[in-house]
Amino acid sequence: MHVRLDGLLDYIFLFSVIITCNTMYSTSPGFDGLGKWATLLLVVSVFLKLLISRISMKAINVIVSRSLIFILIILLIVILNGFKISETSFVYYFVLFPIFMMILQMYYDVNEIANLIRKFVRIIFLLAIGSLLFWLIGSVFHIISPTVYVLNYWNGGGIVEGYYNLHFEAQKIEILGAILIRNTGIFAEAPMWSLVLSLALIFQTLHIKKWNFTTWILIITIMTTTSTTGVYIIGLIFLYVLFSKTSGVKRYVSSLFILATICCFSILWDNKSGTGSATIRFDDYKAGFLAWQKSPIWGLGISDGLRAIEQHMDRTVRYNLGYSNSFFVVLAQGGIMLASYYFYPVIKIILNKFSSNDLKFSALLIIFLMITTIFIETYMFLFVISLYYSLDFGDDRDCHEKQYITN
User: Fold this and answer.
1) Rounded to whole angstroms, what are the CA distances from 90 to 96, 206, 314?
2) Residue 161, phi then psi, degrees to nearest 5
3) Top-ranked range on mean pLDDT: pick from 22-26, 129-133, 392-396
4) pLDDT confidence of residue 265
């Protein structure tokens, strides 16, 4: 009974993290209140998990110290920027972040972090299968017709067609004159679905270390999102595997082929889609840098960071003020101080001589995702940061879980 409850709590926790990551359920008024229920489920699952688990005093000390440092940084940012912080942001930074740090550290401390990662991949695999099925028989071949119509606040309140509230056609793209419906799954936009799939692929190939049916389903689904970032993640993982498994001329010829394919795909995608995504992305980096320059150490505040970036955007190259990366939002909100806290675990893992190459490369890919995708202030962001803090904690421990993750 204890084992069943333990496993159920894991899935409830992960489901809550995923369902609140800019899915249609969290951005559409048609599912109003679901996000709050997901948050409640998350907190309850964490509380019950802590009740039935034992955690070492060393881990408790680490959790408390890291949480206090983070709260102090956020508190100083808020004070230095006129005490401006919304109720939602207050809960996110002062309550939920410490909770995530605590639960992920607990998973590591009781040797369950690998099982948690497997379950995350398992959930995303099932979502990928479902999205591929609906995308093919609905969006591509039109064997079935949409059954629901919902508002999508993420794209400005547009109407989105869906299938049984299990799959939504949130975005389209024009390629070579043809309109293609992007596979957005249950998410409000394709890049967010690609992000979650990319995280699952990173965990599957570099942590679980398996290339099987699940791996290829994740890769295929990423391709159907038509996300350039997802394609880069696939290409970089292939390059890493090639350099790890092959040698000589074969290594370099294969690597050049993969690089050429990625470059051609990206150029074709940007030029033929008519969106000018590369130009917009460059403008995002420029606007973010200009905003960060105003207050490089402590940032412009949790509430004003993104607003400051928007003021520097070039309206002549974009059709909306949507932003594309987490990195400069962090810098604009909290400057070098907040960015240092977020990036500390992945940088330490990369520089740690005891970390395996697989773990180091996964940390590099996490940095890449932060630079190319905006998912700050989502539970998924908290999950990723807390996960790598827990893995960083394990670098000086000799336990089976550490060996599984890093060797």
Assistant:
1) 9, 34, 31
2) -85, 150
3) 129-133
4) 65
What integer pLDDT is reported at residue 404 of this predicted model? 46
pLDDT digits (tens, 9 = 90+) for 360-398: 999 999 999 999 999 999 999 999 999 999 998 754 443
The answer, yes or no, to whether residue 171 has pLDDT greater than 60, is yes
Please state, in angstroms and rounded to a whole number, the distance separating the CA atoms of residues 168 and 105: 35
CA 40-45-51 angle, to 5 degrees, is 130
- What is the distance between the terminal CA atoms of the chain, rounded to a whole angstrom? 33
Alpha carbon distance 235, 229 (integer Å): 10
Q: Are 72 and 340 in contact (CB under 8 A)?
A: no
Closest CA to 135 of 178, 98, 181: 181
The 8 Å CB, 24+ separation contacts for 113-119 are: 113/387, 113/390, 113/391, 113/394, 113/401, 113/405, 114/207, 114/208, 114/401, 114/404, 114/405, 115/10, 116/10, 116/14, 117/203, 117/207, 117/208, 117/387, 118/208, 119/7, 119/10, 119/11, 119/14
Alpha-carbon distance 164 to 55, whole Å? 42
pTM over 0.90: yes
Q: Which pLDDT does position 250 carry in this prediction?
A: 65
Residues 6 or more apart whose CB falls under 8 angstroms from that of 51 comprise none
> Phi and psi dihedrals of 301, rounded to 5?
110, 150
| pLDDT one-digit tens code per residue, 263-306 | 766 665 555 445 556 778 888 899 999 999 999 999 999 989 98
pLDDT in tens, 227-252: 989 999 999 999 898 888 776 666 66
Taking all residues of the chain, what is their mean pLDDT, rounded to a whole number? 88
Residue among 183, 55, 30 nearest 112 (CA)? 55
18 closest CA partner among 262, 288, 383: 383
